[in-house]
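Fig. S4 source data, part A: sequence.
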Amino acid sequence: MPSIIAIVIAVIAVAVAIGAWFRPAPKPETPAAKTYSEQEVADAKKAVCETFKEASTGIQAAGGRTGGDDPTAVLAVAVNVRLALSAASSYLIQGLDANPATPQELAKPIRDLAKTYQEIAILQLGDAPHEKIDPLYTSGDEATAKIKQVCG
């Protein structure tokens, strides 16, 4: 009799093990999205708008220079503009990363503008034709307009 009980227990244990083996694993619980106070959102918006203004000022300063008739100076200005675009792109993303409470109405055009700056800089480095770069200038202008509208 004890051997029959042992066999029944073993069969039950095997059945439970097989059931557990084929049972789907529980899905990890998705953490709730962080909510921010109105003050945190306002502070983040102000900081990101200031970041945008600083980045824009840098690009405008770099783009406002000319090389005159000196080909070396013209190249230096072009390199400086590309550097300004790259630095501004990174600066904008860092500003967003440092301010996670930034509202989406501002965060999206900032990310779009940063991506556009990167694309323009890389295409300019590759001497891409104007036809390929011009649409990016337009999308950059559109993102800038949205940002200015939100930042006021």
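Fig. S4 source data, part B ends here. The helical segments are 2-22, 38-63, 71-98, 104-125, 130-151.
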